[in-house]
Amino acid sequence: MSSLDAFALDTLVQLDAASLRRRLAATERRNGVMTRRAGRDLVSFSCNDYLGLSHDPRVIAAATEALARYGTGAGASRLVTGNHPPLIALEKRLAAHKGKEAALVFGSGYLANLGIVSGLVGAGDLILVDALGHSCLFAGAKLSGAETMRFRHNSLAHLATLLDKHRGKAQRAMILTERVFSMDGDRAPLDAILALAEAHDAWVLVDDAHGLGVIEPGTRAPLEMGTLSKTLGSYGGYLCASRPVIDLLTCRARSFIYTTGLPPASAAAALAALDIVEAEPERAARPLALARRFTARLGLPEAQSPIVPIVVGEVETALALSAALEARGFLVVAIRPPTVPPGTARLRIAFSAAHGEAQVDGLAEAVADLRPGVTP
Ligand SMILES: Cc1ncc(COP(=O)(O)O)c(C=O)c1O
Hints:
- The chain is of the alpha/beta class.
- It has two domains: 120 residues, Aspartate Aminotransferase, domain 1 (Alpha-Beta Complex); 189 residues, Type I PLP-dependent aspartate aminotransferase-like (Major domain) (Aspartate Aminotransferase, domain 2, 3-Layer(aba) Sandwich).
- It has 13 helices and 14 strands.
- The strands form three sheets. It has a seven-stranded mixed β-sheet, with helices on both faces.
- Strand 5, helix 5 and strand 6 form a beta-alpha-beta unit.
- Helix 2 runs antiparallel to helix 10 and helix 4 packs parallel to helix 5.
- The structure holds pyridoxal-5'-phosphate.
- The site of pyridoxal-5'-phosphate has 13 residues, from helix 4.
- GO terms for molecular function: 8-amino-7-oxononanoate synthase activity; pyridoxal phosphate binding.
- It comes from Methylobacterium haplocladii.
- InterPro entries: Aminotransferase_I/II_large, AON_synthase_class-II, PyrdxlP-dep_Trfase, PyrdxlP-dep_Trfase_major, PyrdxlP-dep_Trfase_small.
- Keywords: Pyridoxal phosphate, Transferase.
């Protein structure tokens, strides 16, 4: 056996032993919530399609039309010949939605964070990132070469201490956080972070992947990034910012420059979805209302977003709970380290406008039944 295969097999054995091996499961999403796995229909509480727009006929029609008109792919990077009309229209609309001068669409949210962070700061600069920030915020920080420190999750006191101590030595400073934390569902104290940042001349990047369209936006940060793949039901990432920042990143974000532009259908779908988000506020409010119905029924702290974690601690417990819910017809995927910190394996429940009240109540009953201590 080659040393490469031996390495792969050895590592897989270790992952298996810790119940941390990941496997792909064939999954057919049939609409906003119904999902088929291994021939069974399950009600999914694990999709980030918060408004069910990935299956909305208007969104599908917009994508289909773009597909027929502009073809399946962008054909080249944006700076060569990949800057097609749906992308230009989408950027204009995203900027207006966020109240910013301009926007830049990337291949994905992950690529956006790689390019934004490494395009704006580097060696000699300082990055302060919330300890529970998404993997791509840390990846962008690492790629940048700037000195990177984590501040305790949502701790203004720790952030202030780090700024007091280290800001003076750095040329530029950036603070990275999320509007809604992807695995915890809580929100960052953005107004206070923005005030601290201003006092220390630090630039705030807010990852709005899980906030766009489903959470009251509140104050905007100078750098508002997000994804087209969750509420907007499509694929791709974006940054909304001032015109000079967008123009600079168009020249400097390597994950934007050296990759093919988003397919026209993806951009057109996101644009149609954004129209619906703005036109139908009652739909946008529904996922949070359902999350709150669920937390109220189970006596959990009130949901701050459509994401509700049920932290169980051990990986095996989370896997067993997920399997038991699946046996009852609910798909709630267990989230394990390193996605979440060791000892905090959990079920991450995501609510969608496409869920019915009865489905939410059914899940609450099943969780209460399987997890004594969490009672309806
Ligand atoms: C907070 C956060 N940021 C960024 C991303 C990456 O976005 P994308 O899926 O578009 O790469 C995700 C999830 O995928 C996320 O949860």
